[in-house]
Q: What sequence folds into this?
């Protein structure tokens, strides 16, 4: 009887049921869309951070910022070109440690030994400035003798240099020294090897290189080719393509090779740290900061707060406006559902009064009203989920491009390390926004639908339970 | 058996207090037929609600089989209604979305009758009022007389001790009125029910063996010996 009565009543009052369901659907759909867009923004932010950190890195350790001006000009690059008598192309590479700041390699094992650290790996970020070109000698031309005449006593005209000059090309690119023994951690993990191979542990001091695909294309380099840095010829063994945005570096070489190139023996610029428990990152950060002096520890959360651009704006919008709009619509939908259910009970006073006169307990009558409201809520939930999935699908289909700007700091490709005196850099990435809908979001929607139904049912049920059969029947006389 | 002693009922209507019943004393034996007649607003329906355990008196007692209904809790009153009292209303009060058979079944729901048995009893009750061809019709598909027959079947399906009818023919034409009254009187005789009927209709009142006239909340009972 319960289900028969419920089904028939819902069919009879389908317009009211539809209004209630649509109200709830709107609220629930909005919650799903906002939630999935927020999730998409988190994914986008994760991609931005991953492009800096690489996969699996929970934090980076860099040298603590030095006092302003203390770095001086000692690291300023100098180029020496010899003078030659013939027109000849000359080239000079300057290899500098990114940001001129480095840590001793022993820091890596020190960090690895901290409680809560699963693994740590060092990397050396370098910047290469290649200046190549040629000098052309000018031609000395003798001036014409003026006033020559008798006795040949004319003055010798001044000679002048004509032509000559210099034409130089400056090429600036980043090189990253990778610990080939630990390929699972570090900046190269944010790229995929799309051609050739990656490093093997046997190549710790071999002149081999993996190139970023964009850099390789730009310089017409391929697997098997050769790249010369500071007169050292590196064999290209692989091409890596960044998973999203920019790659961490243009060229990756084994760490020992990088240290030799930069004259930075046993030095690293960044230590990549993986924690044993991602929930304990703050504790690990404190432990490193306390136990390894002179370092700056940067977590994903720290870095996330530096993300700016349209991604950050959209994220703020989803978090603030989207969340409150969803809550407001949901509250309005719940109220409307409650009032409509209550009003429906008022129109059914005689019906419920008659049932009570027949001996139906108040609980049974209230249950009937609650049941109808709950079904309305569930219909609203189904419509809302469909609406929300549609919204999320639309966002994913349109894939609006969001720009994220993030300070990549002195760690170069290897993470954050900014501070005074560092060579700060801002990395801009374009990320296509998606709106993934999680099972949790669907679960939340079902919960909201049930809650909406129960709230509406409580309004109506409360009214129905308070009906006295005599009053109910008297009112319609 | 009903025993009403000094039953008074006051209502609040805005700032005013309406005295619907004033010190009513009345005895109704099992198997009696009592017709209650009186002008509109005289207290007929209020008296019927007291008898039907739908309302409690402001003062006095309404005893049914020795139990004072005024002192029973809501749950016991509900159970008492479910088991002992069948109601028939002027406007039929059928559930518009349920079929004739389902409407009759609603009276058996509070008694915990199993669905199959409920269906069987409902069909039997509808057959007894001549509606076995209209089991699956909605109230909107039935005439006024047919709807009242469904209501009668609903009132009688649980085999109550008392049948309370509030203007059961008030919305029916003359021919249907006689038809319905004939049916009700036949069922009363056949089943030995206590039958209490509220009506405006003098023609019906004349046929009653016992007539309670109610004016301004006071009841006067007239006993009559009718020719059989």
A:
């Amino acid at each position: 009887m319960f289900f028969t009565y419920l089904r028939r009543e819902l069919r009879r009052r389908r317009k009211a049921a539809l209004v209630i369901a649509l109200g709830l659907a709107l609220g629930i759909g909005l919650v799903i869309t906002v939630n999935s867009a927020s999730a998409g923004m988190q994914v986008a932010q994760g991609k931005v951070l991953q492009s800096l950190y690489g996969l699996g890195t929970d934090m980076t350790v860099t040298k603590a910022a030095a006092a302003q001006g203390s770095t001086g000009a000692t690291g300023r690059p100098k180029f020496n070109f010899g003078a030659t008598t013939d027109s000849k192309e000359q080239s000079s590479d300057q290899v500098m440690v990114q940001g001129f700041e480095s840590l001793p390699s022993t820091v890596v094992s020190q960090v690895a030994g901290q409680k809560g650290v699963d693994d740590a790996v060092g990397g050396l970020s370098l910047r290469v400035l290649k200046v190549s070109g040629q000098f052309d000698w000018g031609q000395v031309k003798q001036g014409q003798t003026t006033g020559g005449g008798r006795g040949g006593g004319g003055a010798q005209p001044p000679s002048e240099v004509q032509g000559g000059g210099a034409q130089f090309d400056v090429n600036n690119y980043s090189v990253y020294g990778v610990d080939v023994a630990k390929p699972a951690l570090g900046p190269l993990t944010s790229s995929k090897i799309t051609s050739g191979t990656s490093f093997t542990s046997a190549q710790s001091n071999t002149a081999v290189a993996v190139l970023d695909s964009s850099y390789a294309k730009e310089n017409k380099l391929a697997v098997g080719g050769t790249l010369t840095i500071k007169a050292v010829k590196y064999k290209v063994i692989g091409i890596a393509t960044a998973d999203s945005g920019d790659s961490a570096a243009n060229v990756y070489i084994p760490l020992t090779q990088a240290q030799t190139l930069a004259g930075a023996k046993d030095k690293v610029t960044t230590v990549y740290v993986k924690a044993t428990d991602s929930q304990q990152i703050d504790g690990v950060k404190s432990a490193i900061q306390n136990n390894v002096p002179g370092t700056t520890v940067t977590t994903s959360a720290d870095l996330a707060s530096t993300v700016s651009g349209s991604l950050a704006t959209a994220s703020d919008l989803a978090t603030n406006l989207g969340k409150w709009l969803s809550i407001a619509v949901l509250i309005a939908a719940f109220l409307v559902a409650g009032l409509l259910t209550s009003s429906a009970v008022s129109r059914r006073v005689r019906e419920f009064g008659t049932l009570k006169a027949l001996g139906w307990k108040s609980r049974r009558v209230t249950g009937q009203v609650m049941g109808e409201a709950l079904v309305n809520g569930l219909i609203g939930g189904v419509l809302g989920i469909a609406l929300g999935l549609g919204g999320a699908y639309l966002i994913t289909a349109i894939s609006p491009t969001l720009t994220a700007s993030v300070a990549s700091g002195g760690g170069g490709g290897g993470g954050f390390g900014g501070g005074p005196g560092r060579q700060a850099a801002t990395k801009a990435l374009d990320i296509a926004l998606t709106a993934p809908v999680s099972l949790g979001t669907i679960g939340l929607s079902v919960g909201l639908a049930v809650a909406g139904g129960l709230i509406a049912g409580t309004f109506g049920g409360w009214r129905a339970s308070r009906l006295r059969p005599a009053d109910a029947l008297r009112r319609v006389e | 058996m009903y025993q009403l002693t000094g039953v008074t009922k006051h209502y609040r209507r805005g700032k005013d207090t309406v005295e619907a019943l004033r010190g009513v004393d009345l005895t109704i034996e099992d198997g009696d037929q009592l017709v209650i007649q009186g002008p509109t607003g005289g207290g007929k329906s209020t008296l019927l609600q007291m008898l039907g355990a739908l309302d409690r008196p402001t003062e006095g007692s309404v005893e049914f089989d020795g139990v004072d209904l005024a002192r029973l809790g809501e749950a016991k009153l509900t159970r008492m209604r479910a088991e002992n009292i069948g109601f028939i209303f002027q406007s039929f009060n059928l559930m518009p979305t349920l079929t004739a058979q389902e409407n009759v079944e609603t009276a058996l729901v509070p008694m915990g009758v199993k669905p199959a048995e409920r269906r069987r009893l409902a069909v039997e009750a509808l057959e007894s009022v001549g509606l076995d061809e209209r089991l699956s019709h909605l109230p909107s598909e039935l005439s006024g007389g047919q709807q009242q027959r469904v209501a009668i079947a609903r009132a009688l399906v649980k085999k109550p001790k008392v049948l309370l009818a509030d203007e059961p023919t008030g919305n029916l034409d003359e021919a249907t009125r006689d038809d319905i009254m004939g049916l009700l009187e036949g069922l009363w005789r056949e089943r030995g029910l206590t039958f209490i009927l509220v009506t405006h209709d003098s023609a019906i009142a004349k046929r009653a063996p016992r007539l309670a006239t109610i004016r301004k909340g006071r009841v006067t009972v007239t006993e009559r010996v009718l020719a059989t």
Notes: The first helix of chain A runs from residue 2 to 12. Residues 68-74, 409-424 of chain A have pLDDT under 50 and may be disordered. The radius of gyration of chain A is 36 Å. Chain A has twelve helices and 17 strands.
